[in-house]
UniProtKB/TrEMBL annotation, chains A, B:
Lineage start: Bacteria, Bacillati, Bacillota, Clostridia, Lachnospirales
Protein name as catalogued: SufD family Fe-S cluster assembly protein
Natural source organism: Blautia hominis
Family the entry assigns: Belongs to the iron-sulfur cluster assembly SufBD family.
InterPro entries: Fe-S_cluster_assembly_SufBD (IPR055346), SUF_FeS_clus_asmbl_SufBD_core (IPR000825), SUF_FeS_clus_asmbl_SufBD_sf (IPR037284)
Alphabetized Pfam families for the sequence: SUFBD_core (PF01458)
Domain SUF system FeS cluster assembly SufBD core: 85-303
Length: 306, 306
């Protein structure tokens, strides 16, 4: 593994000179380290680049790491990862991604993930994205996630775009069976001329399924963010979505949350708020000795973490 | 004026054997009565069917009635009405529409309204829509409203679709200059296999302009409603939108409220809620002696009026 990859791994995936448990490290489109465990088997995908990960029902409170790095320009990495999570398993998947270029060439990662959760499985999926390097080449991360939640399963997705990603298009779809639950927390920070586009489609098809979708955006510089969600309640179910954005400088945000109630037993709620940081908040922190910039940074940090 | 027209007028426009003040009555595509007043001049439009209405700055607390009726099938009435509202005028425009067919032929009204509000003008625009008659012909009302609000002007739109309109597509756009204010209350009731599609685009272009958009929907039977709004804040301004829907039977609603903040000084907020009537509300009213149906009716009535 090269130095840049190691540095990226520390930021995106809790890497500390190695991983405990199951892992696969992808560097510039190649596998540079892999380990399976008795309950988590990581295989090479046969029909396309990527992994097939089988998590047995015996996996309880286990963690699997599948970080990916692009460490220089002229790499356009496309990968397909499939997760089969056995009934009643309880696992954390850590799937960060870093793209780095010091040249004028683009560094891109495009990870297409499918999650198949069997009955009662519980998955916490964590993902941090970052772009680094002094190059003028575009840094892109374009994730696609498709989740299939069987009866009573729970998928929590905690996704964060830290900074430095020039352009991103994020697409997430999910289908929920009876009593399945999907919880998404997304935080995206854009600066300079960056753009971020995010799109969620969640279909609640089973009785008493539920989704809670929380999106936080900070658009600084002249960056532009576009948010679209579509929550479909096709049965007795409940959906809640919330998208809040903070603007700074000339940043712009377009938020378009869509609710479709196809059954009278669907209960769907949405809230959205867009605005800049309130002056009083800044003043309060300045009286505590922070500069205006430090105050702004603190507020944004807290907002993205909320 | 025929009996059906008279009956429709009573429902949609507070008609009581005549109007006080300025009015124009449109029946089956023809003018069947018109009166101007010193401050409100109603002229026939020269380049298209419809009216040009000039409201002078001297008009204060005056009312102008411009109801339209289609009283039988095989009428597809298209009308263009332009309102020029002088600086500082304060008027109420009552513009209801009823469509009636006892045959298998369609009865349709398609009213295209433009509102030009000069500095400081205040307009309350009220509109009730209804479809009646025993025919199988389609009853359609497709209104288009384009509003241009000069500095400090206020437009309040209070629009209600009572019942019986088979299909409607409603399009409203508005551009707001500095300190202009737009307040929209829309209520739509659909039943049977009716459909309603409503679309708002509001662009806040002047400092301290504001929009408040409240939409209430009740979808009964197998009716389908689609709501889309796009509020654009391009400067220091505030926007609030709220769309709430009650579902009954197999009714469905799709709500897609969009917020675009193109300036960090735009403050935009949205809320949406879709669901059926809570059981407790019904029980409460039943203990007061109402049947379940009466209770439901009361709740829906209150909801649409709120």
């Amino acid at each position: 593994m090269n130095k840049i990859a190691e540095k990226l791994l520390r930021i995106i995936s809790d890497y500390a000179d190695g991983f405990k448990g199951a892992f696969n490290i992808r560097e510039d489109g190649q596998c540079v380290g892999r380990q399976s465990t008795p309950n988590i088997r990581i295989d090479t995908k046969k029909d396309a680049p990527g992994l097939v990960i089988h998590i047995s029902p015996h996996a309880q409170k286990e963690v699997v790491y599948i970080p990916a790095c692009v460490t220089h320009g002229a790499i356009d990495d496309l990968v397909y990862n499939d997760f089969y999570v056995g009934a009643g398993a309880d696992v954390t998947i850590i799937a960060g991604c870093g793209v780095h270029t010091d040249s004028g060439d683009m560094a891109r990662h495009n990870g297409i993930h499918r999650f198949f959760l069997e009955k009662g499985a519980h998955v916490l999926y964590k993902e941090k994205h970052i772009g680094t390097g002094s190059g003028t080449g575009e840094k892109r991360i374009d994730p696609v996630s498709n989740a299939f939640l069987s009866e009573g399963s729970v998928l929590e997705m905690d996704t964060v775009q830290l900074k430095g990603v020039d352009n991103t298009v994020r697409k997430t779809t999910a289908r929920l069976a009876a009593r399945a639950k999907l919880i998404i927390h997304e935080s995206i920070l854009t600066e300079k001329a960056e753009t971020a586009e995010t799109d969620f489609t969640v279909s609640m098809d089973g009785e008493d399924s539920a989704v809670d979708l929380i999106s936080r955006s900070v658009a600084k510089g002249s960056s532009r963010q576009t948010y679209h969600s579509r929550i479909m309640g096709n049965c007795r179910c409940s959906g809640h979505s919330e998208c809040d954005a903070i603007l700074a400088d000339q940043g712009t945000v377009n938020a378009s949350p869509e609710l479709y109630a196809g059954s009278i037993d669907a209960v769907l709620i949405h809230e959205a708020a867009i605005g800049k940081i309130a002056g009083e908040q800044i003043i309060k922190l300045r009286t505590l000795g922070l500069t205006e910039e430090q105050a702004e940074e603190k507020i944004i940090e807290g907002f993205l973490r909320a």
